[in-house]
Design brief:
By secondary structure, the protein is of the alpha/beta class. It has helices at 34-53, 71-83, 99-102, 111-118, 168-176, 191-200; strands spanning 8-11, 17-21, 26-27, 59-65, 86-92, 124-128, 131-136, 149-154, 178-186, 203-208, 216-221. It has one domain (33-221): Vaccinia Virus protein VP39 (Rossmann fold), CATH 3.40.50.150. Strand 2 (17-21) and strand 3 (26-27) form a beta hairpin. Helix 1 (34-53) crosses helix 2 (71-83) and helix 5 (168-176) packs across helix 6 (191-200). It starts with 7 loop residues before the first strand and ends in a 7-residue tail after the last strand.
């Protein structure tokens, strides 16, 4: 993928917007609802599930594979404020979008959205008292994965478009760097992906997808090992 690909804004079913890459025939978010997808799969089944099952932990480390439009980061920041959490959000993107490409999106008018895109890459920045953002302009396959990750948003393009990212070696590395009881969520429910997640050690759940969207999505749990 190149920085100069043609990228077009597109309205999704729930009224929110996504971006479309004609050359790849791929969208950054579900055409059935960009906002609905992010809220359900990542904020809901991912972060909210972790918080509800770890009520005593108010500081959460989130790692996102695929920063893309920044919608997941924005919604996570809003959820952190709402739930009075402390979130450290690390996100990696090899091909960052420009503001010119992002500005047609409806949520580009959000002050929070503007903030997360104005912050520099490669620098850990506190956006507000609840949210620290660390944007990495790197290849996730060669970078050093953060340690003690609590929640993973695996939001790369589909396996048919980015097969190199849907590999056992990357999933194993992520698993190894996650804290006990960590949670990974992804929109992709393909059998091959589910089996890879299981192979590296996750307990995998097939869950109902977002309203009006995909029928199933995956949540993978790093279950604490019990020693005999």
């Amino acid at each position: 993928m190149q920085h100069n690909r043609i990228i077009l804004p597109e309205k999704t079913t729930d009224g929110s917007h996504t971006l479309y890459i004609p050359e790849l025939d791929e969208h950054y978010h579900s055409v059935k609802g960009a906002l609905t997808e992010s809220l359900h799969i990542y904020c809901g089944l991912g972060l909210n599930h972790f918080v509800e099952t770890h009520c005593d932990k108010m500081y959460v480390n989130v790692f996102e594979v695929g920063f893309g439009t920044g919608l997941n980061a924005l919604l996570t920041m809003e959820m952190a404020i709402e739930k009075q959490l402390q979130v450290h959000y690390t996100t990696v993107e090899l091909y960052p979008l420009t503001w010119e490409q992002l500005s047609p999106l409806g949520y580009s008018e959000s002050v929070g959205f503007q903030q997360i895109h104005q912050l520099p890459w490669e620098t850990e920045e506190r956006v507000n008292e609840h949210f620290i953002l660390h944007k990495l302009h790197k290849d996730v396959l060669t970078m050093e994965i953060p340690h003690e990750i609590d929640v993973v948003y695996f939001d790369a393009f589909a396996p048919e478009k980015q097969p190199e990212l849907w590999c056992e070696s990357l999933l194993q590395c992520i698993y190894d760097h996650m804290a006990e009881d960590g949670v990974l969520t992804t929109y992709c429910a393909k059998g091959a992906v589910r089996r890879m997640l299981q192979q590296v050690g996750f307990k995998v759940e097939r869950l109902q997808g977002p309203p009006g969207g995909k029928r199933e999505v995956l949540r993978a749990l790093k279950v604490k090992q019990v020693l005999n």
